Amino acid sequence: MCQDCGCGDPEVVPIDVQHRILAKNDATAAHNRAHFVDDGILCINLMGSPGAGKTAVLEATARAAGDPSRFAALAGDLATEHDADRLRIAGIRSRAITTGQACHLDAELVHRALHHFDLDGVDTLFIENVGNLVCPAVYDLGQAVNVVALSVTEGEDKPLKYPTMFMGADLVLLTKLDLLRHLPHVRIERIVDALSRVMPEPRVISLSALDGSGFADWLAWLSGVAQASSLRPGGLGDAGWKPALHQG
Amino acid sequence: MHEYSIVQSLVDSVEAVARPRNAAVHHVFVQIGELAGVDCDLLQTAYETFRLGTICELAPLTIERVAAQWHCPRCGAAFARGAVLRCAACNAPAELAAGDEILLRRVEMEVA
Q1: How far apart are CA A130 and CA A246, in angstroms?
Q2: Other beta carbons within 10 Å of A11
Q3: Which of B87, B102, B108 to mutate against chain A (most A CBs within 10 Å)?
Q4: What was the ipTM of the complex prediction?
Q5: Per-residue pLDDT tens over the stretch B9-28
Q6: Taking CB atoms and an 8 Å cut-off, how many pairs form between chains A and B?
Q7: pLDDT tens per residue, range A200-228
Q8: Interface membership of B101 toward A (CB under 8 Å)
Q9: Fewest beta carbons within 10 Å, which of A126, A128, A196, B82?
Q10: Which residues of B touch A241 (CB under 8 A)?
Q11: Which of A130, A129, A177, A174 has the alpha carbon at shortest distance from A150?
Q12: What DSSP character marks residue B23?
């Protein structure tokens, strides 16, 4: 009953909220992030299309690094544990996160997976996200950096079609470089140009998991990120997932 | 495809605002940025389906779409759509001024 005029109408009030809808995910992600920092673990959210070569990159990373015992991985997929199995064979201790219908990982799934995962002696955790260039970009998992695998076979304008994913990338790994000779119409410069129109600071490392090219640069970049955070002795400042550039 | 999980989080957020006031929810207003990674039409459809049986059951959803706006953090210059995201004048990387919002903006409630 409206008290001002006694008209009998209910009083409907607008409440300005300005609340991030994904605040609960963000809080769990912050919790994950604090654990990683406390334990000196560099956490990478590795994303990309299905078939971009995410698992192959991690297998080749284990080969190139020489001591894969310092790596661990969480591999997300809708079904099967094949990726986690492959990574274990490569020498990376791994757990699968089978999402069922969910097309992306979220902070809660990662949090639960970490509960049963012994990360003693690990300094780098790769979270291999579900193959998808849309949904994973939206969910903070608690990672330090986002790395997006983009293969030379996906089309030069791919970044323009998925701006949210590439906008949030700290590094793009241009994969399957060995196939370039079979793709006469593909120019890396045009891929980098497309990236420069969706990523303010495009950083690209071209790789071939098959012949190992680019992996020294990739390992050096990982080492640099770990140094720049407080995860290694002599590091400066905090690693942080770059929050959405505008806080809404 | 993840719009369903966004709706779940949205309903939870509305609950958090309305329950303590013992209020009936009349209308929900959200802001979705163009670069947020959320499809507004799918969000609307998911909301229509999943509001049933929740505190939002009787509340329509109004989605305000926010266009992406990039600007130079040094000189303030705006970037045209599709432009390279580095300021030609300052050489600074562009910053996103708007367009990645996934926000519950306002809830209209009938307070008991």
Answers
A1: 26
A2: 12
A3: B102
A4: 0.93
A5: 999 999 999 999 889 999 99
A6: 120
A7: 999 999 999 999 999 999 999 999 999 99
A8: yes
A9: B82
A10: none
A11: A174
A12: -
